[in-house]
Amino acid sequence: MDSRRRWIAPGGLVGRLVALAALAxxxxxxxxxxxxxxxxxxANTPAATPSAIFTAAPSATPTAAPxxxxTPTAAPSATPTAxxxxxxxxxxxxxxxIPVMRRQSYPGSEMVxxxxxxxxxxxxxxxxxxxxEGNKIYGLLTRPFGPKPPTGWPxxxxxxxxxxxxxxRTTERYVDYVNYFARAGYMVFxxxxxxxxxxxxxxxxxxxxxxxxxxxxxxxxxxxxxxxADPNRIGMWGHSMGGYITLRSMVIADEIKAGVIxxxxxxxxxxxxxxxxxxxxxxxxxxxxxxxxxxxxPPPTRWPSRWRSSLMTIYGTPEENPAFWDSISSNAYLADIxxxxxxxxxxxxxxxxxxxxxLLHEQMAAAGQYSELxxxxxxxxxxxxxFFAAMRRSLEFFDRYVKGIGQ
Length: 407
Hints:
By secondary structure, this protein is an alpha/beta fold. It has helices at residues 11-21, 98-103, 175-183, 211-223, 241-252, 278-288, 306-315, 322-327, 355-366, 387-403, and strands at residues 6-7, 112-116, 123-132, 135-144, 153-159, 187-191, 229-239, 259-262, 341-346, 371-376. The protein contains 10 helices and 10 strands.
């Protein structure tokens, strides 16, 4: 069967599959997989606007038009975590809470060019720095050649997946991804989260601390200080752990026009702890693929327990205190998301279960928000076999919702 074919089940079937499989546990070891080569990738022109649900032939009806509404109250979760016998516990504030993060300031700083690198095909490359909560954070910056547009160049903030901090290098990893967007006329900034590469601060667990998200939100402010950047045309791309950061950023800040997430850790917090039978998840993915068996490796049984146990000791389990677990889940705030989202996931992803993206797509529709979902057969967490198709679709999405082409 053609591995480039796009798969998604009709909405009702997705709902039944999600009800059957719920959500398999996300793997904390979500690796920041990458393409290491620098092969040439040509920029693509956008195709006709696709729908939110993709089958072999796209339908003409999107899920919903994007909305810019912002309210501090959590929207109902598409997968309720409470039970009829839940006993709420007193809830004190935690830094991970979305309302708490919304109250914080993310001023960034002036972005400083630290080093000029060898230019790309039609763009300059730099190592730049900015400040985030007192830490000097570095990152890779690209800028197209030639005179800037009247309002400045559109920007993509790029959030990489998990890479062991001690192995991280600013000029390595995700090279093809950054180059693809840079060649297409975008400024791209890929932040080296605190503790990565030369960035100051201590690296830590992204799911137990808001630190990496704060670094990205401060990068959002910093990139706006560049005279060549258009502060009103900023999109965000994230892979795996970077998808978690992208979704979280989009329900906290309202300046992000569109987000693209590949293999994202985008489940609700209660689902990060549950592991229903692997066979149910596998059956759901197989059904989505039209009955084609989908090989995959079962995820580990549980996450490491230290931070999970700490939160449960203070706040109770998701069943005992659903309000708290909703308050730290981006999925409970989708009514306030800053723009449309495009999701890409491999059916056989053995790092982050495909059901995470399926459920988020359903939740976006329930919240009245626009999303697109591409599912790839015979592929992995990196979507390596369909890399060029997925990048083209990502670029077309950014062109439409960040550049404003075709709107």
